[in-house]
Every structure is written in C-alpha cells, then in structure tokens.
Amino acid sequence: MPSNSALVDELRWKKFSVLNDGFVCLVDVMGDDSSIVQAARVSYGEGTKKVSDDRTLIRYLLRHRHTTPFEMAEIKLLVRVPMDCWRQWIRHRMANVNEYSTRYSVAIDSAQSTPAESWRTQAELNRQGSGLPLPTETGEQLTAEERHLHDESRRIYETRLAAGVAREQARKDLPLATYTEAYWKIDIHNLLHFLALRMDPHAQEEIRLYATTIGQQIVRPLFPVIWEAFEDYRMGGSSLSRIEQGVIRRLMSNAATSGKAPPYGNEDFMAVQDSTWLDLTRCRERDECRDKLIDLGLLRRE
Ligand SMILES: Cc1cc2nc3c(=O)[nH]c(=O)nc-3n(C[C@H](O)[C@H](O)[C@H](O)COP(=O)(O)OP(=O)(O)OC[C@H]3O[C@@H](n4cnc5c(N)ncnc54)[C@H](O)[C@@H]3O)c2cc1C
Fold first, then answer.
1. ω before 263 within 30° of 0 (cis)?
2. Can you give the pTM of this predicted structure?
3. ∠ at Cα 242 (236, 246), nearest 5°?
C-alpha cells in the first residue's frame, strides 16, 4: 500500500468547518491501512499473505469483528464543539482527551447559533429525535431570542470577571451552546465505533455533522481500505436476528404456497410476525423488522 505521508502533511491543521463556528482538524496520525495488516499478520502468520491480499484481509477482519489489529493505528484531532454536543461526545470513553479549561482561561467567546430555518420540531414517535423544520417566521423569532440570550449571558459573565469573580464560578451560567476545544486521540477500532453510533440517523444532527466530517474528510482519505470495508459492513450493513430470520422464512414459505411475488403487503407481514409480538399494539422490534424487510424489497412501504 502506498505511504500516506504527503496526504498527512496536506491534511494536518486543515480546519474543516462544522456548524457556525466549530471545526475538526487533524493534528497527528499514527499508521495507515497497512498498520492493521502488519499487526494481523503477526497473529495469523506470513502464510496469510498467500491466501489473502491486504484489502481482502482488512475486509475479513472487519467483517468478523477481529478488533485488535484496528487498535494499531490512531488519530489525534483538535475539535471545537458546542458544550451540549461535547457532552454526548465525551461519553465515548475509549479516547484520550485534553479539554480547554474555563477555570484557567476565559471561556471561548463564541456560542453555537441556529439559523432561522434550522429549528426542528420534536419527533412524534422517537422521544429522542427531531421531526420537521419549524416555519421560518417562528424560526426567525427563536433565532433572535437565541442571540439575545447568548449576548446577555456573555455580558453577565464578563461583568462577573470584571468584578473579580473567579473564572471557575463566573462560568456557571454560560449557555451549553458555548464552544469548547479539545484534543481528542483515539485508535481506529474505537473511532469506527464512535462513527457508527454518531453518523447513524438516530444520533443528534449536530454530533452527526461532526462525525460525518471526521469520517469523510479525515478517515476516508487516510484509511481508504478500512473506510470502504466500514461502509460495506458497518454503515451499509444490517444484521438479522434469529426472530427476523424466522419471519422471513415464514413469509417466503407463504409466498411459495400463494404464488405471490414481492414486495408483499403489511397484512402478509403481520400474518407471519413473531408470536411474542402478537398481543402488542406498538412494538419497536416489529417496526425495526418491518423496516429491514422494506429495505430488502420484500415488503411495500404502506
Ligand atoms: C443515539 C444515542 C442515544 C443515546 N442516548 C443516551 C441516553 O439517553 N442516556 C445516556 O446516558 N447515554 C446515551 N447514549 C450514550 C451511550 O449509551 C454510550 O454511553 C455512548 O454511545 C458511548 O458508547 P460506548 O460506551 O460504547 O463507547 P466507549 O465509552 O468509547 O467504549 C467503547 C467500548 O469499550 C467498552 N467499554 C468502555 N468502558 C467500559 C467499561 N467501563 N466497562 C466495560 N466495557 C467498557 C465497551 O465495549 C464499549 O462499547 C446514547 C448514544 C447514542 C448513540
């Protein structure tokens, strides 16, 4: 595999913008696709060279969740993130972090602002999610109020500092939208885990933007073979539980008897659902199974 040192030089310290004033940038990288191959060949022996080329080996390792070779490469980023988003980010414990101290230094004078068209309604079904955009007139008012709140809380913060209040106490009423900065170092195994969770549509849009930027702008060029396998098996892949396989088998068996061709209707799906779902009016597992079958072209979206 070709060396990626020229690419690293090109990417290092390049700020990729996220939100109104956030960014991610690569500080350092250790290893590339070949580091994973090199580590794996220690455990599997030189013989593997004969049966699989580097790409095939990486794809095999990722497919079968042989994780330790992916811990042999690391990246270090500098990130600038609003504190509410950082609160979700920092839950990923398998990383090394050093964050800007607002006890030691004056808090960064920048808060995440929301464009008028970017306010989202509460999702109806998913209690953790967002729904449709709010009307722009409502958004304009919310954005104006947001600006007022940010300006006012900053003014109070600076008044406290001017009055001699300690920075560690003065900061307590700054909004969660205030940006923080941190160095974040993580190995590729744990980074892929972070990206799989935080690029997923279930993650909040703001952290999804950061994860997608890291993935597309930094990981993809630096680790092209790993990225391809990650997209094929992790982001673009899907698993079928024992229960879901049972549903598909019964669906196909009924179809063979009736002679119907796919896509089948919801009544066909409900007729072959798992027995444990029968008494449930709402069942998330059944909904997820239905979605998978729609994606596979076995069911119609109704
Ligand atoms: C869509 C979404 C919604 C979420 N909602 C909530 C919520 O409502 N409330 C909430 O509190 N959190 C929530 N989270 C956070 C989530 O529960 C995890 O804390 C977060 O995603 C970090 O995942 P992790 O622990 O796998 O990652 P890491 O901390 O990076 O750990 C990686 C892996 O290392 C192993 N590991 C790490 N630490 C330990 C340990 N101490 N013991 C054993 N194994 C360990 C585990 O295998 C783990 O998967 C949400 C996350 C997502 C993506």
1. yes
2. 0.93
3. 105
